[in-house]
Each structure stands twice: as C-alpha cells, then as structure tokens.
Design goal:
The complex is a heterotrimer of chains A (683), B (165) and C (329).
Chain A lengths: L10 H5 L15 E7 L5 E7 L1 H4 L4 E5 L22 E2 L5 E7 L2 H10 L1 E6 L27 E3 L2 H7 L2 E9 L11 E7 L2 E6 L4 H12 L6 E4 L15 H10 L7 E4 L2 H7 L6 E9 L5 E13 L20 E11 L12 H4 L2 H13 L3 H7 L17 H12 L8 E3 L2 E13 L7 E6 L5 E4 L9 H13 L6 E4 L16 H20 L8 E5 L12 E13 L5 E11 L6 H20 L5 E2 L4 E2 L17 E6 L23 H13 L16
Parallel strand pairs in A: 1-12, 10-11, 14-15, 19-20, 23-26
Antiparallel strand pairs in A: 1-5, 2-4, 2-6, 3-5, 7-15, 8-13, 9-10, 9-12, 13-14, 16-17, 17-22, 18-19, 18-21, 22-23, 24-25
Chain B lengths: L1 E8 L2 E8 L4 H8 L19 E3 L2 E3 L13 E3 L12 H8 L9 H16 L16 H7 L10 H12 L1
Parallel strand pairs in B: 1-5
Antiparallel strand pairs in B: 1-2, 3-4, 3-5
Helix pairs in contact in B: 2-5
Chain C lengths: L4 E4 L3 H9 L4 E4 L5 H7 L6 E4 L8 E3 L5 E4 L4 H6 L1 H6 L1 H8 L4 H4 L4 H5 L50 H8 L3 E5 L4 E5 H4 L18 E7 L8 E6 L10 E10 L2 E10 L6 E2 L1 H7 L6 H12 L11 H20 L1
Parallel strand pairs in C: 1-3, 2-3
Antiparallel strand pairs in C: 4-5, 5-8, 6-7, 6-8, 9-10, 10-11, 11-12
Helix pairs in contact in C: 5-8, 10-11, 11-12
The chains are: A alpha+beta (683), B alpha+beta (165), C alpha+beta (329).
Chain lengths: 683, 165, 329
Amino acid sequence: MIGAPMTRVDGPAKVTGTAPYAFEHPVEHPAYVHPVQATVARGRVRNVDTAAAEALDGVLAVLTPGNAPRLASTEDRELAVLQSDEVAFRGQLVGAVVAETSEVARHAASLVEVTYEVHEHDAALRADRDDLYAPDKVNPSFPTDTEQGDVDAALAAAAVTVDETYTTPMEHNNPMEPHTTVAVWAGEELTLYDSTQGVHPVRKTLSSVLGVDPEHVRVIAPHVGGGFGSKGDQHAHLVLAALAARRTGGRPVKLALTRQQMFALVGYRTPTIQHVRLGADADGGLTAISVDVVEQTSRIKEFAEQTGLPARHLYAAANRRTTHRLAALDVPAPSWMRAPGECPGMFGPEVAMDELAGACGLDPVELRIRNEPEVDPDSGKPFSSRNLVACLRAGARRFGWDGGSRARRDGEWLTGMGVASSTYPVHALPGNSATIRYTADGRYRVEIGAADIGTGTWTTLTQIAADALGVEPDRVDLRIGDSALPPASVAGGSSGTISWGSTIVETAHVFRDKFGDDPGAGDEARGDMPANPDSERFAMRSFGAQFAEVRVHADTGEVAVSRLLGVFATGRIINARTARSQFLGGMTMGLSMALHEHSVLDERFGHVVNHDLAEYHIATNADVADIDAVWLDEADPHVNSLGAKGIGEIGIVGTAAAIANAAHAATGIRVRDLPITPDKLLR
Amino acid sequence: MDAEITLRVDGTERTVVVDTRTTLLDALRERLGVMSPKKGCDHGQCGSCTVLLDGRRVITCLTLAAAHDGADVTTAAGLADGAALHPVQQAFLDQDAFQCGYCTPGQICSAVGMLDEAGRGWPSAVTGGEPGPLDDAEIRERMSGNLCRCGAYAGIVRAIEQAAR
Amino acid sequence: MIPFDYRRADDVLGAVTLVHEHENAAFLGGGTNLVDHLKLGVANPDLLVDVSRLPLDHVEPLPDGGVRIGAAVRNSDLAAHPLVRRRYPVLSQALLSGASGQIRNLATTAGNLLQRTRCVYFTDVTTPCNKREPGSGCAALAGYNRYHAVLGASPHCVAVHPSDLAVALVALDAVIHVQGPDSARTIRAEDLHRLPGDEPDRDTVLAHGELITAVDVPDLPITARSRYRKVRDRASYAFALVSVAAAVDVEDGTVRDARVAFGGLAHKPWRAHRAEEVLRGAPATDDTVRQAAEAELAAATPLPDNAFKPRMATGALVATLRELTREQA
C-alpha cells in the first residue's frame, strides 16, 4: 500500500467540479461582503462617509473602524481589523459592505468615502539603510546570526573567492482559489467554511481574537484550492467575515477576496538581497562560506524569513557566517511562501557555487561533491540520512550532463545546462491526535483535522491508515478538514504527512492493541502523535539535485527551459503518483520563479502595482516543456515510523539557480537578480 | 437593473433573475448554485471559469448573463454521460492531471473545446504550416489560457494526449 | 459597477443612434475588455448596447481581390479562416498570439481594435492617470514602465496599445469602415489610433456613437509572405514587450518590397515607413534589417524600465525578416 500510485480519492469529485471549496458549501440565503481598502500607506482614517453606500437598495450594513464590533484581542495587529483609525499599509481593510448580492456589495463599497490624515510612508528596501535591525530569531525559531571560525581571514587567504550580491524579488503565492471565508453565527456558535491549510489553527486564532470559547467555533475545509503557505497563517479577511456575520441577524456571509485584494492582504514572500562570499583552495575545497541577508518585514508585525538557513547545512567549510537584517517598512506583513528560507536562500549560494566552479575550472557537480560534509556543519550532528551526492550523480547521468559550461547553438537558439543542489528540513509539528472507529458497514472511520490543499492528503492518509490497520484502502473511511475532528497541525513545512501519518499509525496500533483483528461496531480508539527520541540526535533533511537545460534566442533574449530534471532523496514515498505531482509542481513553481515572478512595489504609493494574474506572471502550460522528477530509495529509520521526510516544498528549492546557471552556460551572461527576463539576456 | 433569463445548464432549463451586471459565472455560482466553474481571478486572466457555451469554450467571468439569454451551458459537472466520466475527465484521473482541483473543471471544459477546435483544423500560435496531429507543443499552447498554480501541466498534457487518441 | 441598462441592437443604425444619443452609453462586443473595465471602475456606462449579434459576422472576398472582415467576426473564427490563413498569415498569427483560446472565441474584430491599454496605472482607479482622468498626472513616467512606449509618447501619457490584430492590419494597409449617426466613412487602419499628445484620454479618432462595421484588407502578393512575431515575458497568454508584423518580397537576394509595423512601442501600432525605405532595394541581409530598424528607432525615447525595447525590437525584426527571406529562397 505504502508507495503505491493509488489514484486520488477526491479525484472524481474534482474532475466533475463537485468537490466543494469554501464558497461552495450550501448555506441558507447568504449575504455578500466586499471590503474597502486604504488608499494611503500610512496615516489615520479621519472620516468614513457611508451615506451613499447605505442608500443603495440591498445594502445590509456598512462596517467601519467606528462601528465594527470590538475584538477581544488586538495583539496581532494584522488581525486587529477595523479596531482603530490607524493605517499601516496601503490596501489595509478600513471598511466593508454587506449586501444582498455581490454586485450591490461591490458597487456600494466603491461609494464609501474615506478621508485620511496622510503620513509620510517608507516602503523602500535597500541593503544600505541605516535602520536595518537583527530580529531576535528567524523563522521558525533559529538563531539570526551564526558564526564559526574566522570568515574574513579565510576569505583573505583563499586561493579563489566569489564575492557577489544576488537578489530575489517579492513574490506572491497566488493559489488558484482566492482566500475565502463563509461565516455564520447561530447565537454564540460560529461556523466557518474557510479556505485554509489548518482548521484547528484557524479555530484557535479566531476564538482568541474574538474572545469566544473554541468549543463554539467550527471550521470546515474539506477541499482547499491551493495555499502554498498563504493559507497557513490567518489573515485579516477571516476576522472581517466573522465581524460582518454579526451584522446579518444570523444570515451567513460570503467573503471571497478578489485576486487584486490578495496582493495586499494574505501575505507574500519578502524580497531578499543576499551578499554571498565563498572562499576555496585551488581544488575547490571550500574554506569559507558567508551569507548576509537583507529583507523586509512590516512595521506592525514581524516576519523574519530564514533565507540564510540552507547555507548552514549544505557544504563543508571550516569558516562560516550567516546573518539576517530586516527593514521594517510601511508594507503588509510578509508570510509563508513555499519553502520559506530554503527557496530564496538556495538561489544566491547555488549560483555562487556555479561561479566558484567556473573560477576553479571545475565541473559544478564535482565541486559540490568535493564539499560534501561528514556531519551537519551547523550543529555537528550526524545526518539521519543524506544522499545529495547520489542525487547529483544519478541526475548527471540521467540528464546527459555536459559539464555545465558549454554553450551550444541550435539555429537561432543558444543552449546550455545548469545544476543546483536542493534541500528541505524534516519537520514534524506537535498537537496531533486521531481516532479510529470500526463502523457497522465493516469500515474503519479514521478522523483527524488534516488538510488536503492539493497535496494528496485524502489519498496518502487513506493508504497509511490501510497499511497500519492491515486492510484494503476501500475499507478506510477517512475524514479530514473539520475542526470537529481530532486536532491536527497545519499543512505547512512539508510536515503534514509525517505528523498526521505518524499519528494515524500510532492510533492504529492503539486500536489493534485494544480490539485486535476482529473489532465490533462502535469500537473506537484515540491516539496521539508519538514523540521522536531521534529528533535531537540527528540533523534531519531531504536533499536533491536540479538539472536544467535552457534555450535563449540570440536576437531577442527570449528564454525557455527546454528540460528540467529533479532527483530527490526524501525518505520513503507514500504515494508514487501524488509524490511525483508534488515534485513536478514545486519544480514548475521554481521555473516560474526563475523566469517570470516579480511583485512590483511602487514605493511612491506603497503597493504592488501588478496586482493581478495578467501582470504578475506565473508559468503557463506553454512555459513548461520536458520536465521530470525521480527519487532515490532512501531508508531512514530515524525520521518517524513511516520513514517519510515530507516532499511538498523541496521541488521549488534550487530550481531557479539551476536555470540561472544554465542561462549563463548558454550565453555567458550571469544573471544574479531574478526573474531572468528576455531583456537581461539581450545583447 | 434586473433581467429574467433562461439558460440550459448541463441539460436542464434554468430560469433565473439576474442583475444586468451579473456575469454568467456569478449567475451560475451565486444564483443557480452551479459551483462547477470556478472564480480564480474574475478578470479573464486564469481560465478557471471556462465552460462550453453553445458548444464553444469561453470564460464566463467577463460574459454578462443578460447578454446570453437562451444559451446552452455545459460545465464539467455536465460532461459525464450518466455514470461514465467523459474521456477527458477519465484521462485527468488516470494521468493525475490535477492537485488542488480548483482550476480543473475549467481545464477540462477548455480541453474538450480545444479538441473540438483542433478537430476542425483550427491552427494555433505554434502551428507551422498546415495543422497536423496535436503534439505536445500544440497542446501546451492551446491550453495556455488555463493557469495551474499547482503546476500540473505535465499531467494535463499527458491526459489530453490520452483523450485525443 | 454602476447599474446599467442592457439593450440588444436590431441593426447598425439603431445601435449607432442609441449610443450617439446617450452620453454615457457604450457598445458591447464580446465584453472581454469592457466587462473587465466595468469591474475595475475604469468604465462606468449606464447603458450597454450589444452589437455582437448584428449581421457583421462574415469574412467575404471583395471583388477587387481583398477581403472584408465583419466587425462582429470572433477573433478565433477570423484566425482560422482559410482565406485569411492563406492570404494574410500575419493576420492569423497576430490573432493567435493574443489572449487565450477561450477569449478569442468571444472577442470581436472591432472589440480587439478598440481595447484599451494595460498600463497598471490606467487600470487602477486609485492611481493618477491622464488617460482616465485628464490632468491627474501620469504615474507611469516615474513608475513601473516596462511595458510602455518608446516612440510617439508625450509628457502626459506613455501608454502602449495592446492589440496584436491592429499591428497586423496597419502593416497590411487595411481600411476601417465606420458608421456614424449621419454618415459612414472609412479610416486607414494606420490612422484609427492616435498618439497621446495633449489628449491621452482619446485612444482613437472615433467620435462617441461611431461604430466600426467592417475592416477591408487589400490583396497584394506581398501579404501572403508575411509573419507576426511577438516577444513576451512568458511563452503564452501575455501582452507583447515588442512585436513585429512584417511582409517582404525578396528576389535574387534583394528586397523588392517590405511592410513593417511594430507593436509594443507606442500608443498606436507603429508603421515603420523609415525602415521600409531602407529595406527597399537593399540586400536581404541581417545587417540591412538592423540598419532599417535602427533608422526607425533612432528617435526612441526609452524610460527607466524599458531601455531594452529598441534593441529587442531590432532583434525581433531581424529574426522575422530572416525567416521570411529564408522561406522565399
């Protein structure tokens, strides 16, 4: 069962469009909410004139900072919706209309007149700002700075050095399903149909912010149209929906953010400026690795992306340093985006490694192999398993790797190959329980508040439960995506399958211990996620290698990725079909990051001006040609009872660097600032 | 302003009162409870709202419902033939051509429409001389009006190849 | 979106009268640009007159050999029409490079020509834009102007016209038929769109209530040797950074005749008369084409984000003419 390419349990519903997402659950006579957003980046709301809006037929309520219900907690300033007249970023919620139809709600919202006391704002991220500061820690809880040996001395003495600055732009997750919350109060009971990566975290946060007993809040999310991190934390629209629903006398309200609104309200990946310095001996043996990161956070809520983190774990070098510095700006709060830290943080260093290979006259694959560490350089602990070298070698063979520095000409197209390493930590998140109940129809009902955001949870947990119980999958009746089910951790950090899966395995053991192989109807057992004694003894990470072949048009600079291969070592694969799709999906997002994505912030106004899917480019079908992902068999007895490491994010890590390195091989032009657009390769 | 219109949706006559401002997408989702076509961007930039309108693939977020009184609308929910899935739907299942599923109904309607267009000899931006059989490059270009953030494109192309056979 | 009345026109004159006599009325074709603008608050008519079902949906050969394209012909039908594909490949290719299959099934000929700029400040009612609100300023000049004009711009507006079809029609010397309340007229495709000058709010020379009814494309041997090349930030479903509509007639390695129009460079499709002059009678080589492009683009005034456009347009023209020349060898 484990490893089998079982087709998705939710497949038939999805291909017929009958799987319900947040907006789509049947509710009685809903009203529609349309937000009003601040058009200044910093200041105060002086007045909100709602007369014209309220005069429209069909308007049920107009919420303002002056009349919105008070929240119990305003500690989280992103969630302190309509609680004060303070404006902290352009696009912040400053009002909302609740109306009978979405057309009336939108029209009325445009009639709400807000006047502001405008303060000067600051939205400029620069590496030379004099107010950059070191956060107490970087996400999720790592040291901000690390230092070993004497980096400066080692760099000065090195035979070969690379000293360059690399940048990644602001990016937006942009899941296809816009963030949506449907909220309905029945007395003091609140039900939410939400688009979220975790129903229990939503319940916990919202009940705290509203000041209600979590027992009175139910969050339902069986199907979620993607998240990629942006639905991992709670955002302002969730609170707004709950407040708006207070004004309809018990009628449900539907709040679906528009694509444009998402660019200000649901988080994004911070731009990063990475100063990377490498020092090596003449044979490419690294003596120094230094990564200094500058990035942004919002003034009202700190988010410190751990961009310097992967450099702490990749290669051996006696002298090492990583630092993070933040600029607190009048901008929305950044948040999680696929492979936080690892994704941007493997761009600069992996392009730098390519530059080092060139300076040493070495094959970039060989350079990486030469610097393979014996233990985790950061902690000194042994890796529970690490097969980066095997991935590089297998990938080079499979890809037809040409050494990476050869430009070939195919008519009007220059082509070249590039490589980069890939890595992602193994996370298990606490707070998981499951129940298994034998039902009268001879099936095992398995319940846990897990989430399927496209990752395949409906299917993989069914397989895990079936395997643990020793039955066929069709005898497993899995229930997820509901806070009425046992508590579960968020779908994030590639931790879902590990955390929920190990909990289910444990629960299955408890069930069999208690009821044996021939249970009776109604027999039920509950299990909690087991602790992992090995988690302190070992450094636990997944590794991979990304190979890219890029074509660049000699006359126009147009760039296309003709081939992309990822080879991964990520422990035991639960479902070969969904795993392959996750790897390919991550790599596709990496291609999109390499060539297309760039949220353009106009500092004069403080907002992202290319705030829709026509102007913020994600890869289309035509951008993805030959793409393949394979994995090595990797047995790791230390990570958890499943031997699984989590695979949802590693696909995006290193892809952009591989593509940038391939573009350099093709053209001799070294692009250090993403995205790699045609103008950057135009002669 | 309100208007009463009739649409044939997945084989069933539906009469509904709409605002003249109501798009076909919102008429389906908000007034008829037909949730199969999805709202991904509401501005014609993602293709998630694609249906077959009088047999042709179109996006519904920029079409006014009042302008299509009497139209025949087929969504992904209406493609199946009784209990049997449409070959394109079955192919999507077989090739794992989706992940979160939100763009999927639009992808499927678009693919059905696209195969019909190709069958009629319509060229695409990558067609050299005369259109030949659909190869990978043709499928990718013709399906580029359907964005997929989960990156299921590789599976989508394989699924359409399978269905086209 | 303010409430609006929706009416379907019975005939061309009826449609024209309805709109002409109602200051805040608009024609509705496929809706793929107008409805976008209604939602954005960029357009706020209180009356829509649907002209998409008027009997203007044919592609007909003309007695003198050209073709007449009805204003309501859908972009997809036009691109697939055998006559168009055979005689005017640049036209078919231009259409197919625009939007998506689904959008092309809705969009009409006239609607495509009359679509408005995609400048991010024009489409956002909260940022200054002289095109939307004359006198409010141009936020693009010192802002995000990657997609903006390098030719023919004014201090008031640096927007670019986004239609690919328009560029092809300009290269083909097409003629637009327009029906007004009192009379009909024809306008050369090259004259339909304006440069911004002091009135950036006026995209075209059309008066309120004038309706495009058809487009005539003349028949010349050169038009069958034509091509459209679009350079963009991703492989599909994106507007042009720069584009080229070109036709060339080469004999014995010499250019006998050429047609060139650029997209993505100006407030209107840019017919490259100077480039054509350089090309006529010259050897059909990359170098000649480069010189021709450089002559045309010598007057370019790039902005901070689009300094690459002249070089990219040159490269696109070189590649396009090289391919056309090769085909004729």
